[in-house]
Design goal:
With about 600 residues, this protein is of the alpha+beta class. The protein folds into three domains: about 35 residues; about 190 residues, Penicillin-binding protein 2a (Domain 2); about 325 residues, Beta-lactamase. The chain contains 22 helices and 23 strands. Strands 2, 3, 4, 5, 10, 18 and 19 form a seven-stranded mixed beta sheet that branches. A five-stranded antiparallel beta sheet has the order 12-11-23-22-21, sandwiched between helices. A three-stranded antiparallel beta sheet has the order 1-8-9. A hairpin with a 6-residue loop joins strand 22 and strand 23. Helix 10 runs antiparallel to helix 21 and helix 14 packs parallel to helix 20. The longest helix is centred in the first third of the chain and has 35 residues. The termini are far apart.
Amino acid sequence: MINDSLYFASKGKKNLLNGITLILCLVFISKLAYMQIFETSKYQQLSENQAIKLVRKEPIRGNIFDRNNEMLVHSQPAFSITITPSEFTKQSKTLLSSLLNTEESEVDKVLSKYKGYSRLNPIKIFKDVNIEIVSAIEEYNQYLPGVDITIESKRKYESVIELSHILGYTGEISKKRLEQKRYYFPGDDIGRNGLEYSYEDLLKGSFGSEWIAVNKFQQKVSAFDDGKLDKDAVKGFDLILHIDSKLQAKAEELLIGKVGSAVAIDVNTGGILAYASSPHFKLEDFSGRIPAKVYNQLRDNSDKPLLNRPIQGEYAPGSSWKMLVALAALEEGIITKNSTFTCSGFLKFGNRSFHCTHTDGTINVVDAIRSSCNVYFYHLGIKLGIEKIREYGLKFGFGTRTGIDLPNERDGNLPSIQTLEKIYQGYVPKGIALNWGIGQGEILTTPLQMAAYTAAIANGGTYYQPHLVWKVFNPLIKKYEVMNYKSTNIKIASDYFDIVKFGMWKVVNQGGTATNVHLNQVDICGKTSTSQNNKGKPHSWFVSFAPYKDPEVAIIAIVENGGYGSVAAAPIVREMHKVYFGIDTLQEYSNIDSILTQEH
């Protein structure tokens, strides 16, 4: 039997515990009722003031400089309007459309592009808006939930040179790239062409973040947690190019009114000193919002100003190809420096006559280059054959992209024997080898390929990957970092390069096809080309390097439908050499005689 005293003691404790519990509940209920009834406005305000919002901070895009640290492009602040779909209302849309003086359907059109993306992420819908619109949105901010103003970068071009095909431009990120680059938001700007595209990951910088407390109108009340969770945006890397602004300006000037391009390249590094494509377009038209009318006019222009001719123009190389054929024949033991052929003005092959532009008589390889004798190189084409010519063409980078740090480069065309068999339905005419011997037929090259090839001849057989960016400035470690590029040794004896280079020297300095390029102050070596095409007059080529001894620079130019190489392209190259070597006036001194006395 349970002891009665223990029972009643236990029961008393239980009642006491229950009483205390009841009193505590009454206290909490009373306090809660008091807060709900008498302090509603106080806690509502606190609640509204303590909503937390993440604001993304845009980085400043990196600058671009020329080799002498002259600024070419930088960024300036611009205002954009963003919409966060999860907060955006019908009323917001009506008022925003009114402030922007646009139809609501235009807002719907932008938002509909990004229906599949998170509704929590802001979408940039209008870029580069003026300060009046910004002020109006700030004024009506409490009636525009989901609408914000953000500050981002807009490109500003400081140089008088155009560089439109080099620098490229930025624009709204596409859906495809948005899926590839998850750290971008809908409507963000991204590099769309040129170096802006190729170096996007360096130029863009890193986004920052800021946590803020906002009220019910999404207005900032205070920093959250004293900003301890905030992260600063990091400015993008600066690019320093090999481009020489003076040389670039001269190239652009010389191409005014012409359709073509000019390229200057450092023969000992592959760094591009000048890169002009004509006609060009104005990058200012592509900064901020791009009017459809402007883009359509450029797109539909018959001269194709949007075409990046140094890497996208494809042309038969013509006679400038003859140095490659000569090197192949020398390396293969088909000819020596003194081997001769007789030019009677044509070569009979099968039932066809292949013509030369003049009658050279008995001639060796050096003078065949000097006078650009077709017959000599017809013979070499036959002896080498298509496959061997292609083999050496590939060694000099033809038929494939150079690897320049620009997007959308084309390969040119250097077809294999298998491809030719398909084209000619199983039988490749032997006469094709003659055309290939003088750089005609199926062969197509880009101007940049020709520049890199000429540079490789000049330096004696090293093919350097052409490139525009010399070094970058890293804002994280505050140091310059030099970029690395590929180089390849072309396995051809150096003596054979010397033979070909002497022939190129004679082209300019001893009765060759481009004596109008001669300068007293520096020995220029070159080669003219008159490249046949199916649309109008031939294209005019001139490729060159200088000085003859210890070459520094290769400069090439092409003028579409310009006729003879010596007439249209060669004068452009001559003037570019004058700028590169700082030649302002002609001097009486000439060193031709000293060159002629040397053994070759």
